[in-house]
Structures are given as C-alpha cells and as structure tokens.
Amino acid sequence: MSQILVIESSARKQGSVSRQLTEQFIAHWQAAHPGDQIKVRDLAVDQVPHLDGNLLGGWMTPAEQQSEAERAALALSNTLTDELLAADVLVLAAPMYNFAIPSTLKAWLDHVLRAGVTFKYGEQGPEGLLQGKRAFVLTARGGVYAGTGLDHQEPYLRQALGFIGIEDVQFIHAEGLNMGGEFQQQGLAKAQAQLAAVA
C-alpha cells in the first residue's frame, strides 16, 4: 500500500483546470490502486506562510531559545515535511501564473526543502534524501509553453524536486486553455489521456 500526497495550489476554488486534473488523477489512481491512501493538502484553503524570519529562526535557533512564533513556524514546517517524507508518490497541481508556479506552491517548497531533512551537504555537494519517490506535476496553462524559454515551471520544479532526490518526475501539461476552440479542446484532451495512462 502506497501513500499519495497531493498538493493543490490553484487560487481558484471553482473553474480551476488544475483542480479538475487532480480530481481525474485521483479517480484513475484509486481505481487502479484501491488500497493506497491519498492525502490532499489544499494551499488555497490551508495557506502556508511565505518564508520569513520566524521560520528561519525556528530552523536555526536552539529549542530553548526559540520564540513562540518561531516554535509555531517550525511546527508547521515539520508537519509539511513529515507529510512529504511519508509519501511514496507526490502529485503537484500547478497552474501557470505569469510563466511560473503559484507563490503558494513556492511557499510550500520553501518549508520542505530543508538541509539535514530532505537534503544534505556532503563532500560531493548537495545530496537529496528522498530517493525512490515518484512525482507527477499537473499543469494548466493559458498558452503553449512546453519546451520554450517561457516555461519556468518545469525546469524549476525538476531542479527543486531533484535537489531533494526525487528524480522520477512526470509532467502532464494542459496547454492552450485560453486560446479558445480547438486549441483548448486539444490541450485538455491530451492531458486527460495522459492522466488515464498514468495510473
């Protein structure tokens, strides 16, 4: 039995294509793996604070010297990191906002990319500690960006996930969603077909 962690990052609760893709992924996965456990963390509902002095203090200050705010920030970071450590499969739902990922997803990454926990520095440089996990990234994009210099989602997320040892990453892009007509239909249909094959 595997543990699946799904991270939703769309700011929209209704009409979100990335949320639609997530729902379809979960349905396909549950049908193929009925014994697996799926946990969904919705960053639009349970917002994660951006990296600040309290979080840095929680990481770097001895426990007996931490302020109440630093302890609270560290506790949240520990919760988020523990969820990731427990997962066998990570699913990131990431609409494209201004050519990149939502700031909420960046905030989540800032909480879980932690020296000594999800990566470490050794003689050969940084080493990811989460080897063996798989990741799927479901993107929703108004235009067509895959493989172009305007795509700052896939390169960044591949680097961030690889940095903590997650090298098995599959991207499913729903593109052309704001281009209307055939572009929109084809972009969504292609992504849906890939989702059906993933499970």
UniProtKB/TrEMBL annotation:
Gene Ontology molecular function, alphabetical: electron transfer activity; FMN binding; oxidoreductase activity, acting on NAD(P)H as acceptor; oxidoreductase activity, acting on NAD(P)H, quinone or similar compound as acceptor
Keywords, ordered alphabetically: Flavoprotein, FMN, NAD, Oxidoreductase
Domain Flavodoxin-like fold: 3-197
Residues reported in the UniProt entry to bind FMN: 10, 16-18, 96-99
UniProt xrefs under InterPro entries: Flavodoxin_fold (IPR003680), Flavoprotein-like_sf (IPR029039), FMN-dep_NADH:Q_OxRdtase_AzoR1 (IPR050104), NADH:quinone_OxRdtase_FMN_depd (IPR023048)
NAD among keywords: yes
Quaternary structure note: Homodimer.
Family as reported in the entry's similarity comment: Belongs to the azoreductase type 1 family.
Protein name: FMN dependent NADH:quinone oxidoreductase
UniProt source species: Pseudomonas xionganensis
Lineage of the species this protein comes from: Bacteria, Pseudomonadati, Pseudomonadota, Gammaproteobacteria, Pseudomonadales
